[in-house]
Amino acid sequence: MKVALAQLNYTIGDFESNKVKIINAINRAKADGADMAVFAEEAVSGAPAYGLLDRVTFLEASEDALIEIASFCDDITVIVGLPIMNDCKTFSAAAVIHNRKIIRYVTRKNIYQREDVGFISSGSGSEIVVINGKRIAVVVGEDALCCDEYSSVVDLVVNIHSSKYARQRIEKRYDKLSQFAFQLGADYLTVNLVGGSTDIIYDGSSAVFNSKGEPLALLASFEEDYAVVDLDNARPVEIPYQNKTANVYRAIKLGLSDFFFKNGYRSACLGLSGGIDSAVVAAVAAEVLGPENVHVLLMPSQFSSDHSVDDALEMVRNLGLRHDIVSITDVYTQILDVLSPVFGDDTDFGVTEENIQARIRSVLLMALSNKFGHVLLNTTNKSELALGWYTLYGDSVGMLSVLGDVYKSEVFDIAHWINRDREIIPENIIRKAPSAELRPEQKDTDYLPPYDETDSIIYRMIEERQTLEEIINAGYDPDVVLKIAGMIRKNEPKRFQFCPILRVATSTFGVNRKMPLTSRCRY
User: Fold this and answer.
1) Would you say domain 2-242 falls under CATH 3.60.110.10?
2) 35: three-class secondary structure by DSSP
3) Architecture (CATH level 2) of domain 247-496
4) Per-residue pLDDT tens over the stretch 357-395
5) I need a surface site. Which of 30, 35, 198, 317 has the fewest CB within 10 A?
6) How is the chain split into domains, by residue range?
7) Residue 479: is it exposed, middle or buried by C-beta count within 10 angstroms (0-12/13-18/19+)?
8) What pTM, to 2 d.p., does this model score?
9) Phi first, then psi: what are they for 453, rounded to 5°?
10) pLDDT tens for residues 91-150?
């Protein structure tokens, strides 16, 4: 039996484009002699559609597109995902089409993702269909995790999925698929979505495993792909090494690219400080959009070091970015003069004065965005988000956060990856000690240990949900652990107002980890 796997990048609500992609793949599969073509979960509509799934017109448009798709399915079986409505409830379904007829809808039963609850109802679960004499279990989405529900004697499992990317998820998915196939004693095929949808990134990585748990085909990650697999004659292939840094980099590139092109945006702007975070964001944006479509603003103050400006300018030259330099020193002084009657005799330099600088920069960046129609990219990383090391209405501004799910120590890894072939980010930016440069001789390590240690503690708290006692018992300084926990709790109101974040972790601030603003719980 020959099966075509079509891993495609869909856009939510763009039924015409999605339909054409699916039909073209079906025609290609027929030309390649495939008996079956398989597409991802919610392929017809795009995902995740959230509140659109409550709209009858949206669901009708999805089913209208399916009817036209079915008209091209002569002499081939097609399994394709779409949302359907039944009894005033919306389900994520796999439509099974055979010889132009929609012979069955298989609906997803298990809804594990919190953000899907309320938009998708629990359906009847996996079903067995007989095609070309073979018993095929059709499984939608997370029902794949409940293999006991489709463990009767089958020749093939077809799982259409919309699995989001998270760090190390690809290799874990392969391990599970191999295990499921071996346990069931059947070939196991999964087709996953690929592409970005605002903050969500689907990695693709569709695959076929034989009944021994050996991979027969592994489709590309983070890009569209297509393959025809002869299940009766295919030979096993090797699973490639998954480079964590490369995958995170490819994920944020894909997320950024689709955020722009699916929304019709063409150019970006950001503040280029001479620090590592803005350098990485600028490099990614330049690769995705082209350097001519990235406008950076250098905004030195009296506290900025000369080398920061020089480093930023060197990067501008390396990439050919459009840039301007606007000093904020005079504006900062004028604001302090205006506020002097309000502040009175309190002339001490503190957080207030630091935040004024950050907010001046946000005003200038928003002006640049408004004037030229640029999308302002936020450059805050996950470590800073956790600790509150950013200014509300200051460097928190932006329409999209590129690094908000990437720890500071990972940002350095990504910078080295960007420089793997040639120096794009100046080596001095990578080597120098991180600093906000909002006061003389300021360093991030004035307040906490180096980022390797700090990030490890934050990771245990956020990603692994360890208790303070568990982290302290692992050998970390109790005072540092308590300090970090207090900072994370204190800064929840700031995160509550943050922009969408490209998700590359299992626990993303504001989505997987959303805490009440009013609470007396210490942790």
Assistant:
1) yes
2) coil
3) 3-Layer(aba) Sandwich (3.40)
4) 999 999 999 999 999 999 999 999 999 999 999 999 999
5) 317
6) 2-242, 247-496
7) exposed
8) 0.94
9) -75, -45
10) 999 999 999 999 999 999 999 887 888 899 999 999 999 998 999 999 999 999 888 777
